[in-house]
Specification:
Two copies of one chain form a homodimer. With 306 residues, chain A is α/β, with parallel strands linked by helices. The first copy, chain A, is built from ten helices and 13 strands. Chain A has a nine-stranded mixed sheet, with helices on both faces. The first copy, chain A, has a four-stranded mixed sheet with strand order 3-2-6-7. In chain A, strand 6 and strand 7 form a beta hairpin. In chain A, helix 1 packs parallel to helix 8 and helix 3 runs parallel beside helix 5. The first copy, chain A, is globular. In chain A, 44% of the residues are buried. The C terminus of chain A is likely disordered. The interface between A and B is large, with 78 and 78 residues.
């Protein structure tokens, strides 16, 4: 199953309290494509300027990434600059230069239209609606968004939510959009809009899956000792999720500056972390309750990490 | 295996944005005893005043709770009053009346000394050291503490940490005590002090277990739609943890005002939630990585919740 993704490809300048990198490959679609192409064919729709470094295209060229829908236009590539705070969870956007994105309208190439999985990465809801108008054969459509659209284009965002199968939101975004203090109540409200699934992203705490049929699944995060650059973690997570759904092979990461760590990731790395998560999230399914005082054998579970 | 617990038994007055309850049963040891006695014999060491309501003792009398070490002294029971903020994660202590706790020194009765599991509930580190001086046969000693002791009696707390097997701390407390931004680095520092295990409590995100041998286990929290009174959640968690270790039957809860919900909890309720956690934390251990594009059967996992 191939995956269609529509979103931003950008050049990012990122500062953390510990380091700084200039004009590196960024944008939601870049993170998504790099993660998802570990699993399956990915069909990219985005726009870049004539100043976009050729090396990034060459990198994707070595992966099962179709660039037929990547428009190259005379002008500047979208640029984003941000500075992370000490806790690495909050950041200030220092600069946004739309460049060729200013007049962008996504066009889905004919050869992409058989894609069964669709990821609407974080761009304006109006553009996401334009994408939905051009696809008909999708089995699962997945939507990502951000606080900016909840605040400024809520009604269009609501239209998109009503037309997709799965929504990815951070827990803060769920509370903002639904205006509910209880996460579970907020998710229920979202599911009542017609979504089949809501995935709540909780940063270093992992992610929760809620289904309209009552399904619940809690995925712990892999505990990282050092976070170098959290940019794109949610997009890489989405790439792993849809990649998994395309081939049943999960992935979840977000280390090193830009996509450099992701770039060097091999399926063996994914398999190794997956096995860690199998172990560290395993509850003995054969446990059953006995009377107090009735001792049972303790089976130790866990995985070597430190 | 019986469990020895030393800690506070109190009368609490708790306000939330939604309700208020006066002079209800509270104190770390009360929550612990009520949870742990679902699993195993619990031997309590604490002090109460002559004004302590008889009904609470009658309640524990119906459980496998030994009250031989509960001293009843002429005077007032320890009282604590607090108000929770809107998010239920933060609270202000409004009043603390030590009463008979002021001159308390724990005495472990002879009949308790064969207890194999020890829980040092949150009291002054000096008193916790006095308990450690009186026990010799313990197989696993578990320590709980609070921000107040990290700030005011750090050196005594350090002494206690060096003499126990397992430490329970919230993630904020790990960062405060170790002065490390990285939780994993902070836990490593704690393990380097000689602890065998560190359990990091993350509130509604669950808990993490780190072992000195590199063991790691992530336990998700059961997602509650409504939180009525979070007081004692960590103590009830500890009760479930040590109860599990005594009989291999896990437990984790914290609903309703005071211990009312916990009081009404039966082992079937525990078993039901356990089965939910089995399902919602299950990663397919037989998954293995294939080549991109090589589709495998999707096995849906999860548990009905909403």
């Amino acid at each position: 199953m191939s995956i269609l993704v529509v979103g931003s490809v950008a050049l990012d300048t990122v500062e953390t309290p510990f380091a700084r990198i200039e004009e590196t490959l960024g944008g939601a679609a870049s993170y998504f494509v790099t993660a998802a192409s570990l699993y399956s064919q990915v069909n990219l729709v985005a726009i870049i300027g004539s100043d976009f470094p050729r090396e990034h295209l060459d990198f994707w060229g070595k992966r099962p990434v179709n660039l037929a829908g990547l428009k190259i236009e005379e002008g500047s590539t979208f640029r984003w600059a941000a500075r992370y705070h000490m806790d690495m969870n909050t950041r200030d956007t220092l600069d946004t230069q739309l460049g060729v994105y200013a007049g962008f309208h996504p066009v889905i190439p004919e050869e992409y239209r058989s894609s069964k999985l669709l990821f609407l990465a974080n761009i304006q809801p109006e553009l996401q609606l334009e994408v939905l108008e051009q696809v008909s054969d999708v089995r699962l459509s997945v939507l990502d968004t951000m606080e900016l659209w909840i605040m400024t284009t809520r009604s269009q965002l609501t239209e998109v939510i009503k037309r997709v199968d799965m929504l990815l939101m951070s827990e803060e975004e769920v509370r903002q959009y639904t205006n509910r203090a209880s996460l579970v109540a907020g998710v229920r409200q979202l599911l009542d809009m017609g979504l089949r699934y809501v995935v709540v992203k909780q940063g270093s705490y992992g992610a929760l899956l809620f289904g309209a049929d009552g399904t619940f699944f809690s995925a712990p995060a892999y505990p990282l000792e050092e976070v170098i650059d959290p940019t794109g973690a949610g997009d890489a997570f989405a790439g792993g999720l849809l990649g998994y759904l395309a081939t049943v092979e999960p992935q979840q990461d977000g280390e090193d500056f830009s996509i450099d760590r992701l770039r060097s990731l091999a399926m063996d790395d994914v398999a190794e972390r997956y096995q860690c998560l199998v172990m560290c999230s395993h509850f003995d399914p054969n446990w059953c309750s006995g009377e107090p005082g009735q001792a049972q054998t303790i089976s130790r579970r866990g995985v070597k990490l430190l």
